[in-house]
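Final report, Chapter 2: Outcomes

The project's central promise was a pipeline that accepts a single protein chain and returns its three-dimensional structure in a standardized token representation, suitable for archiving and comparison. That pipeline is now operational. To close this chapter, we reproduce one record exactly as it appears in the project archive, with the input sequence first and the structure output second.
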Amino acid sequence: MPLYEHVYLARQDLSAQQVEELTTQYKGVIESLGGTVAKVEYWGVKSLTYRINKNRKAHFTLLNLDAPAAAVAEVERQQHINEDVLRALTVKVDELEAGPSAMMRKSDRDRDDRGDRRPGDRDRGDRDRGDRGDRGPRRDRDAPRGPREDRVETAEVEATEE
């Protein structure tokens, strides 16, 4: 049977449990039509690049399928009817990934990077601001500001001379 990677996006106002129920429903459709679901990954709620049906975020779920084309077509048909599913994409692949998908590897790497930092730390690299002594003197608020005030004075002088 052909192998597929299927990703669907569910509305953000659904709970994680409701998304899991949708996944179970679609998994049942695949299995009833002679296919198998090799792996299910819930990627969580992520921001969308652009709004889809007034939604800015969505629940992302990946299904790795080993199923006939008719089963995949039926799942896609049901997802297009369902109001809770915003988008679905199915891609035929030569082989399925054995380990976690790229999205899951990325989130694991991000968690590891953040674990080393303390809250409030910033990545300053090699630059150290020190006491900022190299900035020079500060301009006093009452000191003249330059050409603009000179123009005003000359305009007043010309008006009084006439």
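Archive annotation: The radius of gyration is 30 Å.
This record, like all others produced under the grant, will remain available to the consortium after the project formally closes.
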